Amino acid sequence: FFFFLDELQVRLNDNGRGLIRPSERAGNGLRNMHKRAGKIGGIIQLQSTPGEGTEVCFRGSLPEFPEVLFATKAQSPQRTAN
User: Fold this and answer.
1) N or C: less crowded end of the chain, CB within 10 Å?
2) From residue 62, how far is each of 1, 32, 67, 81 by CA, in Å?
3) Are 19 and 25 in contact (CB under 8 A)?
4) The pTM is what?
């Protein structure tokens, strides 16, 4: 992943068979990824080449207060068991 002053990018690559048919791009998994990214102001881009693999890229804006990203363990909220 990469992050800049105002943006986060996460790229996932594989060297599998790629998405061969357009119908393979319309499954629930990809649709859900697009919806979830959109809910937090991000986008998902998909590139696939048959026989060569697939790349999924998430891009989204970072919060205005970058200190949230760099909180130490002591500053992070603690989880409690239910």
Assistant:
1) C
2) 13, 21, 11, 29
3) yes
4) 0.62
